[in-house]
Amino acid sequence: MSKVLVIGAGAAGMMAAVCAAANGHEVHIYEKNEKFGKKIYITGKGRCNVTNSSSVEDLLQNIVRNGKFLYSAFYSFSSDMTIDFFENAGCHLKVERGNRVFPVSDHASDIIFTLASLMKKYHVHEHLNTEVKSLYLDKRSVKGIILDDKKLVKADKVIVATGGLSYPSTGSTGDGYKFAKKAGHDIIDTFPSLVPFNIKEEFVKELQGLGLKNADLRIVSGRNTIYHDFGELMFTHFGVSGPLILSGSSYLGEYLQNNKIKHNGKIRIIIDLKPALTEEQLDVRLLREFDENKNKVIKNILPSLLPRKMHNVFLNYADMLPEKKINEITKEERTRLVFCFKNFILTFDGFRGYNEAVITKGGINIEDVNPSTMESKLCKNLYFAGEVLDVDALTGGYNLQIAWSTGFLAGSSV
Ligand SMILES: Cc1cc2nc3c(=O)[nH]c(=O)nc-3n(C[C@H](O)[C@H](O)[C@H](O)COP(=O)(O)OP(=O)(O)OC[C@H]3O[C@@H](n4cnc5c(N)ncnc54)[C@H](O)[C@@H]3O)c2cc1C
Question: CA 393, CA 61: separation in Å to the nearest integer?
Answer without folding.
Answer: 9
